[in-house]
Fold this protein.
Amino acid sequence: MSDIPSSSPADRFNSASATTGLAGARQVGDDDVPVAGGDSISRLEAAQAKDRGTTAAVAPSTPPIEPAKTPTKPSVPGAPSPPPLEPEWKPTGKAAEHWDKLKSTHAAESATLKAQIATAREELATALKTGANPEEIKTLKEELIRYKETLKDVAIERDPEFKKRFEVREQSAISAAKLAAGDKASKLEELLKQPANPWRDEQINEIVEDLPTSAQRRVNAALGLLDQIDVERSAEIAQRRQEFDQRQAMTVQQQQAQQSARAQEFTKAFDAQLAAFTDPKAGHPFLTERPGDDAYNKGVASSKELASSLHKAFMAGELTHDDIAKAMLHVAVSERMMKTAQEALARAEKAEKALDRRRAIAPGDGRSGAPASDQPDSAPAPGSPEYMTWVTQRLAEAQAKDRISDMAGGRIV
């Protein structure tokens, strides 16, 4: 509290009045309030105001409150600072050239891989946009596997994996021969890559004869290795073809056995159906014989023979496409044809009986199951075009008889 002035405003006012006249003013000090003129009241008010400001600034009752600071993450004690970047290491001398080549090769390979990855991503995005079906992709992969297996069976020498496996060894042998051939390396390489023939062998022998003894041994060793590779390749190709031929022969045998089994099953089914269709009690009307009707029974026998011949021709593969198509069409209309014939026959029998009663004549020989008519002794084979003409004619005759009955006095039923 020693900083608070001990003099009161009145004391300072009196002191100022004693040293300063009413008409003039002295120089203002650091603690004085400059007041213009000699007005005593104004100077007193100025001194009081100064006292109030000094007391509030010098003697606060409570310590000032500092504003809150933004919290910061404390630093980890003992954390090492990142090391400074070191310059790129590079070998010196002759190795520097290889180092630069290696870096350029690596950069080129990296760029190629990045381009391939970008292309694959674009293709994948396109496939997803177009709605590629996973099942379709799976099917294509399975087909690719089958095609690869087929290629290995029929032309193993064109299989990329097979060619690569032998080409690596061949190239190694050719490189060894080139190193030994000296200035004739290019010509020797060209000859070694050609198919074996007498002229090629003669040219290679001429090159080898001009080489030193040590070089001749190395070239001959490389030639021996190439011959061994050719033998191995030919042996594997022959083995693959033999295995393929065996599988093909086995497949043919299996197919023949399956065809024989199907033929036996078909023959068995045909015999069973023929027996059912010709059953005297429950068989087909056109394939069951009638007692005492030789002409009709002859047509039944002809139909059976035709069915058996068609069966044999089908099993032997002798039926043409037209034959099979016609047979299908006949089968499609057979039910309607039979129904039409039965209805026509029933109407004819009814007309015959009505006409006989109208004329008061005794029934003839044809009243027990077949109407008497002027039909020929032998009818056309059932199912043939002539048979349908014959049935139509019979129907017309029955209708004519019905009209005669109407003219005679009305239809009798």
Notes: The chain has a mean pLDDT of 74.
